[in-house]
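If your schedule permits, I should be very grateful for your opinion on a structural question. The matter concerns a single protein, recorded as an amino acid sequence and a row of backbone structure tokens. Could you please explain, in whatever detail you think fit, how the structure tokens follow from the sequence? I set the record out below, with my sincere thanks for your time.

——
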Amino acid sequence: MNAITSLKSYFIGRVASLGAPVYARASQIVVPADDPHDEWADHAHDHDPAEGQSFVIDYEDHAGNLSHRRISVWAVQRNVEGVPILLARCHERQAARAFRVDRIKAVSDFDGTRREPLSRFFLDTFGFTWPQDAIRVPPAEPAAPRWDRVRTIVNGSGVVLLVALAVADGELGAAEMEEIQFFCERACAAADLDLTGGERERLAAYLGRLRPTPESVEAALDTLMAGDRAAIGPLLKAGLKVIAADGTLKEQEAVLLDQFCHSLTGQGLL
């Protein structure tokens, strides 16, 4: 097993056994007796990665059945009609499902907060506008393009892997979040983009909804390996800080990450 395969196995193992996210209104969860038409087709392609953004949806399927369920989105696809489809892990089914955004009636965070309007949520979270005529940003206002750039920089930095390290114990704590946000802000600064206070708040909300899936972790690692290998060391070093933030860093994990870094870059972390 080579270093890249071993690294993938390590990170995927961190998230593969995660249980469903804790939801403040768990008593309201409901799914139809069956939802075969929402099963994800293995032959689907042309995905845009979505890092594992996680939330609760109110959804109406093709037959009019309503559900209230927790999902973690790992890709976005458009059908022949141009409708975005969220490819996600449904935590109630413990299986992959595909959700048309035009059938999503409401979105909530796991603390029960409703995200409104939906058009702004989709734009902030995935970078697309739906309905297509819902938001009209004045040409003089650069807010949307700047946020798209923030998302691109943050996702390209491998942040999903840091979150995978942080949530393996079941939750993303404040200390871990602080380390991850600091890493993201440094990545933006390195790209000559200094975040405003509002952008930092949006970034915190974005990171707080991340709950990586095996699919999103593998995609993040593929992107990392296809880029500049020099980025691997700082990312894994940040990973050590994230794991240590809640006081649970184990020596064997530190040694393992150090070995990965040395194998892939020729330089160690310790």
